Structures are given as structure tokens and as C-alpha cells.
Amino acid sequence: MKIAVLDDHLGQTDSVCRTLVSGGHVCHPFQNGNDILSQLHRESYDMLVLAWQSQDISGPKLVHWVRDRLPKNLPILFISSRFDEDKIVESLMMGIDDYMIKPIRRSELIARVQVLLRRAYPAKNSNEQIAFGDYVFETEAHRLTRAGKEIETTQKEFDLALLFFRNLGRPLSRACILEAVWPRNFKISSRSMDTHVAKVRSKLQLRPENGYQITPIYNFGYRLEQLFRGDAEA
Length: 234
What we know:
The protein is of the alpha/beta class. It has helices spanning 10-22, 33-42, 59-69, 85-94, 106-120, 122-125, 155-166, 174-181, 190-203, 229-233, and strands spanning 2-6, 26-30, 47-51, 76-80, 98-101, 129-132, 135-138, 143-146, 149-151, 172-173, 212-217, 221-226. The strands form three sheets. Strands 2-1-3-4-5 form a five-stranded parallel sheet, sandwiched between helices. Strand 4, helix 4 and strand 5 (98-101) form a beta-alpha-beta unit. Helix 7 (155-166) crosses helix 9 (190-203). It is elongated, with a radius of gyration of 20 Å.
């Protein structure tokens, strides 16, 4: 799904987008309201994640514009820096679908986004299978198969494998992997992460002769690469 994110704090926007990308979505970040309004005139999105207040336009004004001009089922998630019951009630009355209070928890954000998207687009979300060649991930059942044969994985191994495939060919830092797979502020050693990666490589048979290779990147992280016949034979 394609999601637009508005927050005038660059760090917050980057964090939200990293989380959404790790969840398999396409994220378009914006730092001010006029920019996102201009883009909404030209391009459609499946969901909006908006801060209550941006540099040049308030969240409520932006919501009013969206509800007047865009499809009514477009999900809107508000993000606020503090709990204010009156503001929350006001925003719900004007048409937002859900809200979160900063600091944003990665797993909660992904869960809330998925719920809103399923509710808004039931036809798109009826099939929860994600296929990458012979590998098929069933995200609801947390079931992974290769060429129709089930691969037994733990929850973390499933999440880690899906993260690699969703970012095929892209280098992933250890920090990005930690944020995407493990709960916020969860501490694991580099050796433990390496062990999880090794198990994913072994269980999924991610070897050059099978067309895939997990490559460690020194002092950074990992990258899952898809190899073609010439690459595997080289």
C-alpha cells in the first residue's frame, strides 16, 4: 500500500517511514502541509499518517480538505505529541480513523495501519499471501512455503526472512533489522542477530545454487541478493 506521512520533525517522519517500509508498504514523507496538499492534487494514496500540527497547516484543516475532496474510505491516522482528550474527540468527530501518541511504538504502528487498511480495502487484503518466486509468505498464519513445501520457522525467523525479501537487493543495517524485527528497546547481541540470520539462510536454503545469497556487509548489516545463472556459476 502507498502511504503518505506528514510530520515537520524529520527524525519522526524517517522513523515512521522505516517502520512502514519494513511492513511492506511504500512510504512518501512530507515535512509541511502545502507540499502534501500539492501532491494529493496529482497523486492518490491508500492511507495518510498526519501529525496534529505541521509548520504551515494544522492537521484538522488538512483532514477537512481531504474529507471534502478525496474518497471517503481513505484511512487517516493522526499522530500527536501529547494526550489531549478534547483534541482527540475533535479529530475523531471530523473524520480521522485512529490516533497514536508519541513516542510511536513500531509494532503498534504496523498493527494499527494493517487494521485500518484491511477495513478500508477488504478486497485487497483478503489474500494475505506474499510470493517471491517459489517462496510464499502467509502473513496472517505466519506460514512460509517454498515450492509448496512448508518451512518451519519461529516468529522472528519468519519476520526476518520477510524483511529480507521485501528489501531484496537493498542493504539493511543492523539498526534497521533490530527496529523491524525486535520490539522497541529490545537488546540483542550482534552474535544473536547473526545466529538468526544464519538460521534463515539455512532453513530457506538461501544459497547461490538456489538463486539467492545473504551477504554480510562489514560494520553495517546484511543484504539479500537474487542471483541469476551467470552470477551463481561465477
